[in-house]
Amino acid sequence: MSKSIAESKHDSKARRSPFWRAVLLAGVLIPLNAYWIVQMEIIRGETLLTTLSLLANVIFCLFFLTLANRKLQQYIPRLALSQPELLVTYILLAAGSAMAGLDSILVLLPNIPYAAWFASSPNQWESRILPYLPHWLTIKNREVIGGYYQGHSTLYDPAHIQAWLVPLAAWLLFILVLLWVMVCLNAIFRHQWIRSERLSYPIVQLPLDLTADGGTLFRRRALWLGFAVAGGIDLACGQRYFVPYLPQLPMLGTTGVVDLGAGWVNRPWDAIRFSPVTLYPFAVGIGFLLPMDLLFSCWFFVLFWKAEKVFASQLGYTVQEYAGFPYVHQQMLGAYIGICLLALWVSRHQLRLLWRRAWEHRNGNDTDEPLSPRIAFGGLVAGMVALVAFGSAIGLPLWMSAVFFVLYYVIALSITRMRAEMGAPVHDLHFLGPDTTLATVIGINNLQPQALVALTLLHWFNRAYRTHPMPHQLEGFKVAQTASFNSCVLPFLMIGAALWGAASACWVYLHIAYQEGAAANIRGYGAVNFGRETYSRLHSWLTMPSPPDFGALIAIIFGAATALALSVLRFRLTWFPFHALGYAIGGDYAMNFLWCSLLLSWIVKGLILRTGGQKLFLAALPFFYGLILGDFVVGGLWTLIGLALDVPAYSFWDV
């Protein structure tokens, strides 16, 4: 695609705009968004605002900020924000929301006190688990967590604050190092992925166009038509919560899900299982931004993985979700690894050049580089050493700790590459992080209890990768490059925003948990069940140790080889329709809900490109922006209404 609507002409020299207003604005918005996220994603268990690549709550805020800014430009121009200031606010709000969201800090918090509270004579956790848990990462005193689980208490009791202060401080320090390594990696790959390969970064097109100088996008009728369509659907679906006798819209939104798999009850077709068919307006809009081959591959591989499960059932295998033949999720993990290996191979010359620059006598930071090569490489090495030492300190053998964090960043790099190249709308990879993979491949019976407990402690940021912060960082660098403002301070601002988001979510969640009771009145899934998932798995490991699963290892290798083969074929054959990214994410839980919307986008976009080419595509683009905005804005307003009235409300996305 040529330049998007928002890429208006800027001076070639990077702007050095003062961003203090944007930083202050983001500093205020991040805690407010943390409250919104915590309420929706773990307290009420309704709309999952942060589990999409394009964060719904951030787009919601940016939409209203931009509208308000247009009024300021009209009446009080000196108070109006520039486009770089709006975009910096967006970048920092995304960084803060990623750490405050599901699959990040909200998985960690329920795990910290869980083992001590649910230890009992039957499960024998007091002898099997508690002795191996570091006191500086968990809470073992049942007296101070009684109020957390039962409610009718307060976080602000000095004993409660003291109990939570040490583990939270330790984990936030760990998160700081984790984020720093991500920033260093993004700084290293930035030039290759932004300048040399000129990857498309579809996820940032909407924020760039939305904040364009002059408000061009807001003057497009197609935008408001798309907004009316999506917003109208959300309005109709949301009213049913207050007027139940209104008709339900089939296949539209969360309430209109139709399950194709419900009728398949006999073997082998029962392996299809839950197969929802639904249309999400925002997903149709996001799909329009994606390349045609990825759109095709996304919905095709959803069906492909289901067919593979049916084939395995026909052969007599009992198809399980995350284990056993045909090892669908292990193949997907292998595809992630293959995508990362290919990205490293393509970037090898640039990496070699940066390495040489890092050790030149003069190594000043370029004006448009977030980190100098020396700082990036040095910071990467120092951060990895610190993380490996942390893993060793909590009980992992040194070699296993090194493998754990290398594999974690291989997955992180793959996700970041996916988002940069093709704009993957979701990326789950549930329950297949380094903790699960190492235990499966090595064998539970070959690991000591302390190592198993250590893997359990590291599970919280590897349960799933929907809210991964690393791609948001690289997209921030892309936004800075496209909008032509200096990115030297962005690494530190993004890390600060992420920590501020994590700390805000900690405070909000614990404040509510001590009032309501995590096991008493909080109805969201995660308040108790995140801990139950984690420690039930550990209990199973300790009581029923299993040997190495070589089938899983073979599936991972096969998945990596398949992803590499698909990439080579796509490079050599321009007509080849299958993309390795679709193979990697097609079996994800969220993609099971999105495939129908992406199929519709593929059909509509194909027709538009065939009949009117690029000109008609650009003319239609605002309509699909409107679908995203209408769904996020009206759907977001429903969540706020439900929150304000303390009643259940319509959820435009709960996957």
Concise account of the structure shown:
The chain is mostly helical and 655 residues long. The chain is built from 24 helices and two strands.
Structure description:
This protein has one domain. The chain is 65% helix and 1% strand. The protein contains 24 helices and two strands. The protein is globular and about 65 Å long. The N terminus is likely disordered.
- First-last Cα distance: 30 Å
Number of strands: 2
Q: Count of DSSP helices?
A: 24
Overall tally of structural domains: 1
Low-confidence stretches: 1-16
Helix content: 55-70%
Q: Note the run of SSEs as H and E.
A: HHHHHHHHHHEEHHHHHHHHHHHHHH
Tell me the radius of gyration: 24 Å
The profile of the biggest β sheet is:
2 strands, antiparallel
Structural class: mainly alpha
Q: Numbering strands along the chain, what is their spatial order in the largest sheet?
A: 1-2
* Mean pLDDT metric: 93
State which percent range the strand residues make up. Answer: under 5%
> Could you say which overall geometry the principal axes of the C-alpha atoms support?
globular
Key traits:
disordered N terminus, 65% helix, 24 helices, single chain, two-stranded antiparallel ribbon, mainly alpha, 655 residues
